[in-house]
Amino acid sequence: MSGKVLLRVLIALTSIIGGGAFAAGTAPPPERMLLTGIPPLGPTWLSGADGTQIPAGCGPEAARLLLLYHDRRHGYRLVGEDPHGAIREIHRLMGTATVTWDGVRQGLTWPWSFTPGLQAYIETRYPSGAAMGTLSGSLSAVFTRSVDLVRQSVPHVILFDWRGSGGIFPNHYAVVVGYDLSAGRMHLVLNPGWGYDFQILDMSDPAVAPVTLFWIGELRNPPDSVPGGPVAPPSAAGMWVTDEDGQTQLRPVLRLHNDPRSTVRWPTSSHVQFIVPGLDDLAIVTWDAR
After folding, report:
1. Distance between CA 6 and CA 56 in Å, rounded?
2. pLDDT of residue 131
3. Is residue 10 over pLDDT 70?
4. Is residue 243 part of a domain?
5. Which is it for strands 199-202 and 187-191: parallel, antiparallel or unpaired?
6. Is the pLDDT of residue 251 over 80?
7. What percentage of the chain has pLDDT greater than the value 90?
8. Residue 195 needs a FRET pair 20 to 30 A away by CA distance; which of 55, 64, 157, 217 works?
9. Domain limits at 76?
10. Residue 157 lies inside a defined structural domain of this protein
């Protein structure tokens, strides 16, 4: 049995053991799912101490996108009206350094600095902080947990080896906003922080390891708030369609992580649940098994 086939078997078994099985007579969980409403921001550049432009880095970028989602969905003021100031502060608190990788300047955030930096940023706005979660492990374990979080409507950050050339060093942070289990696939869908909505990460590819997840639970002692948050650029622009029953659906276009110039188009969704009145891009979108 090849390594890839074995990985598929392990993930299928883990999904069943970890809650992927469903009771007889009930509908199976959706084979594809997306959480929309995280705007297509990035990459961001900041002014360095000497006045030169430096990259904010994918770690702070992913953290800001995650915070912006919580603002919009729960009415927090974690990013507020100053998204540029927010990422600048996150960059500082995470200790993100500017390095040159493959001849390109990039922002390096050490894995052990991501959660403490994010928690410190949250506490500057809400002193009680937030419940934080993290998971490192095999591709199968991380994939299964990521799918579970998406099904709980919890976007989260994944750290992985972008080009499969980092050895034991993962080098890219992105926000997980969906998954695809159709036809035996083991795909996560990312907002990569590069100015577009959706990108596919194939979790059956050993080259993306090692992988780690980070997520934010609820704020401790959350404030009274009204969901909606600040006005943000539209997410999934141009992908919303009307089906034959007059219902709004999504037909997304996704890029490939190993070749961002290439795209794939998913079929039209089965169900769309808008979750904040007045925000017509913040939704839970699902595809039934076909």
Report:
1. 39
2. 94
3. no
4. no
5. antiparallel
6. yes
7. 68
8. 217
9. 3-19+39-232
10. yes
Separation between Cα atoms, residue 249 and residue 74, nearest integer Å: 23
Find where tokens 């360095």 sit. 48
Within 13 Å, how many C-alpha atoms sit on residue 102's CB side? 5
Q: Annotate 98-167 with three-state secondary structure.
A: EEEECCEEEEECCHHHHHHHHHHHHHHHCCCCEEEEEEEECHHHHHHHHHHHHHCCCCEEEEECCCCCCC
pLDDT digits (tens, 9 = 90+) for 98-128: 988 778 888 999 999 999 999 999 999 999 9
Q: How would DSSP label each residue in the chain?
A: --HHHHHHHHHHHHHIIIII---TTSPPPPSEEEEE--------EEE-TTS-EEE--HHHHHHHHHHHHHHHHH---SSTT-HHHHHHHHHHHTT-EEEEETTEEEEE--HHHHHHHHHHHHHHHSTT-EEEEEEEE-HHHHHHHHHHHHHTT--EEEEE-SSS-STT---EEEEEEEEE-GGG--EEEEE-SSSSS-EEEETT-GGG-SEEEEEEEEESSPPP--TT-S--PPSSTT-EEE-TTS-EEE--EEEETTEEEEEEEPPPPSEEEE-STT-TT-EEEEE---
CATH of the domain at 189: 3.90.70
Is residue 279 one of the residues assigned to a domain?
no
Where do we find the tokens 């469903």? Answer: 22
Locate 92 and state its tokens.
């500082």
Per the structure, the count of domains in the chain is 1
Q: Which structure tokens are listed for 107?
A: 């922002």
Determine phi and psi for 112, rounding to 5 degrees.
Answer: -80, -5
Angle at 130 between CA 126 and CA 134, to 5 degrees: 150
Give which of 191, 165, 163 is closest to 61, Cα–Cα: 191
